[in-house]
Specification:
With 200 residues, the chain is mainly beta. The chain has three helices and twelve strands. A six-stranded antiparallel beta barrel has the order 1-2-5-4-3-6. The chain has a six-stranded antiparallel beta barrel with strand order 7-8-11-10-9-12. The longest helix is centred in the C-terminal third of the chain and has 12 residues, at 184-195. 32% of the residues are buried. The model has no long low-confidence stretch (mean pLDDT 92).
Length: 200
């Protein structure tokens, strides 16, 4: 479980195909705390397991399922990823409950200034739009965000300068892919209402 509060940005150091799967090497030295092999780390919102660690660079094994559902398979050496370590008992929950289980991929429709932020608009899959409400939570590339506006199958986010400068959202350009995870509570509510025959 994560909070969507990105701790640091790490650079991709290497990638190697292993059959249909992928080994991705990412700099994690900026993550606070002590990290060990087997730890869960969110890579731009995707929960991945650290399988090796050497001199501040971790290796992650990405399954075919992860490659199918995310854009991590296209991550190149030099690309930057938002990083967050898994929530530990007693840690403050400053964002919202984020599982690191990506629901789909969207794309940037209107970009923001890398230092000053602004209004970021993102297209999201049509089947996820029903989970989005004004002032509700959404996770884009691992960043916990509040929905400020909606139109068609797009969400608008008011990104503050700190978020723009300290995550990869500030460097995203129009057309760039985004991992989308909607609020898990909304999905649970929908499932419970469906079981009672109350959903539309």
């Amino acid at each position: 479980m994560f909070t969507g509060l990105v701790t640091t940005v790490g650079t991709v150091h290497g990638r190697a195909r292993v059959g249909d799967e992928l080994r991705l090497r990412v700099e994690v030295a900026g993550l606070p705390g002590i990290h060990r092999i087997g730890d869960s780390i969110a890579l731009s919102g995707v929960c991945c397991t650290m399988v090796a660690l050497f001199d501040g660079v971790a290796e992650f094994h990405l399954s075919t399922e992860t490659l199918r559902r995310t854009w991590l398979g296209r991550a190149a050496v030099g690309d930057q990823l938002n990083l967050e370590a898994a929530l530990r008992a007693g840690d403050p929950l400053g964002g919202h409950l984020v599982q690191g289980h990506v629901d789909g991929t969207g794309s940037v429709v209107e970009a923001i200034d890398p230092q000053h932020g602004g209004e970021l608009w993102a297209a999201i899959p049509a089947d996820l739009a029903r989970y989005c409400v004004a002032k509700g939570s959404i996770t884009l590339d691992g960043v916990s965000l509040t929905i400020a506006g909606q139109r068609d199958h797009q969400v608008g986010i008011a990104v503050i300068p700190h978020t723009a400068a300290n995550t990869t959202l500030g460097s995203k350009r129009v057309g760039d892919s985004l991992h989308v995870e909607v609020d898990v509570i909304a999905k649970y509510v929908e499932r419970m209402l469906a079981a009672r025959g109350l959903s539309s």
